[in-house]
Design brief:
With about 110 residues, this protein is an alpha/beta fold. Helix content is about 45%, strand content about 15%.
Amino acid sequence: MIYISGRITGNKNWEEQFHEAECYLIKKYYDEKIINPLCLDENTKKVFKTENPTYKQYILNDIKHLIKCTHIYMLRGWWRSKGARLERHIAKVLGMKIIYQKRDEK
């Protein structure tokens, strides 16, 4: 399983970037399940029984899914996000393969 990680806060194109990355990864790694954290939003609301989860609730739910993965795909600009930096750190500690998005990849 491959988890997509990147900057959301302060990034006006975050939805498009995560969606394009998901499409790219599905084509490139067709036999792997791709975890797009944007698709976890409804799950976060159910888990915490709220329509307006906090940042902490989102990141906790995301990490729950991240730790089940074997790879993490870091979107360009990931280092500007405290959440993405945390997710990368967790991936390193757990020995996951870290893939960095290249300039020519969408």
